[in-house]
Design a protein that fits this description.
Elements lengths: L1 E7 L6 H9 L17 E7 L2 E7 L10 H16 L2 E7 L6 H11 L5 E6 L11 H4 L6 E3 L8 H11 L8 H5 L5 E6 L6 H9 L17 E7 L2 E7 L12 H16 L2 E6 L7 H12 L3 E6 L10 H14 L8 E3 L9 H14 L5 H12 L5 E2 L2 E2 L2 E9 L2 E9 L7 H15 L7 E5 L2
Parallel strand pairs: 1-3, 1-4, 4-5, 5-6, 7-9, 7-10, 10-11, 11-12, 16-17
Antiparallel strand pairs: 2-3, 8-9, 13-14, 15-16
Length: 442
Amino acid sequence: MSYTVAIVGKPNVGKSTLFNRLIGKRKAIVHDQPGVTRDRNVYPIEMGGKSIALVDTGGLGSSGFSQVQDQINEQVKKAIDDCDVLLLVFDSLSGIDALDEEAAEFARKQNKPILLVANKMDPGSKRPRLNELYRFGFHHMVMISAEHNAGMFDLEEKLLELLPQRPEENKMETSMDRPAIRVALVGRPNVGKSSIINHLIHEERLAVSDVAGTTRDAVDVQVCFQDQEYVFVDTAGMRTKRKVQEDIEYYSVKRSIESIEKTDVVILVIDPHERLTTQDAKIAKLIVDRGKGFSIFVNKWDLVSGDGTKVRENFRKDVHAEFPFLQIADLYFGSAKTGKGLKHLFAQARLIVALMNKEYSEDELKDAYQMISKHHDGGFAGNKIEIKRLSVIRRDQQAPIFKIKCNKPQHVNSSFRKYWKNALHEIFSLRGLPISVVFRQK
């Protein structure tokens, strides 16, 4: 069952930038000139396991000012009538003017849940004028920078809270239409893997203790969420070999590795107080080597002092800077204790499986091949590498292999291979997939 969320506000507050950020692509035109967006721009997205039709609207203005503006206002009114939640966007730096007042009053009369979005909270910018926004009296507000991807986690969390509860009709029947998604939670001992699953199923199904090694065997737990069956696999904490002192733990780790190989998606759970340890990186490398789609979940985030967008972004940057091979993976923050952020696990699993099962048309591969080739001539020490064709090999429960036909595969160096891998990731939006790239002459 799909929800509808409309983005509204006066012109030039960043509605289309926010729309593009939420859908993950540049679909809506963004320009400083007012009135660029006029019609409703609708795009389906997945958020927290919920299907949402996201609607970008034109800037609200004074009625009677022009025929075009009246038409824009009418389109906005239709979008509001059909939506479940309103994202009312303001420019946090320019202050409130008469158009903002009209937009706020217009939205308030619609009797819909409203999330006030203070946009353009850009790093290093002057102090935002938030006091003027508080006087509108809206109960829910988030501060973001859509352009710099700051505060989006808070926005998604608050938006999911405001979506109305609906009865899940024929839940079991619709969920059987598609196979269950297997998700393995892996990580070091005591990072909260069992606690996460307990919260997802709303019962103390798995033993939880501060003692390392409480979980020993891999345990499958079925969860149905938004018409989709999931099998979450709780695995034993994985320590370095020199710390594994008993046979039981040795076999527990072995079972964990086997679980990784048999699942569709892997979630690496880490503790924010220790950041990403060397052992975490080794576990991540194990996931990557097996071609598994994965993301990183930072548990126990409720215990981090000074929680905020900047703290999360710095944490994310530090992880990617220290371990560059993890830049393909998204980081999500939450808490098994409070339940905050856990719904992202469903959305991530669903998205990664969809990417792994993606079919590539000949035209898509040809366009990608031409786009990537023209930016690098493939010349190495006098050996000209001529790329002739790009194809893809899809694998069950693994990231795809991109096969590149060329004249001299023996002269392809690691830099050129990395260039192609990064470009393919970017073009096909393959976040979370450790794709393989191979060069062959035949």
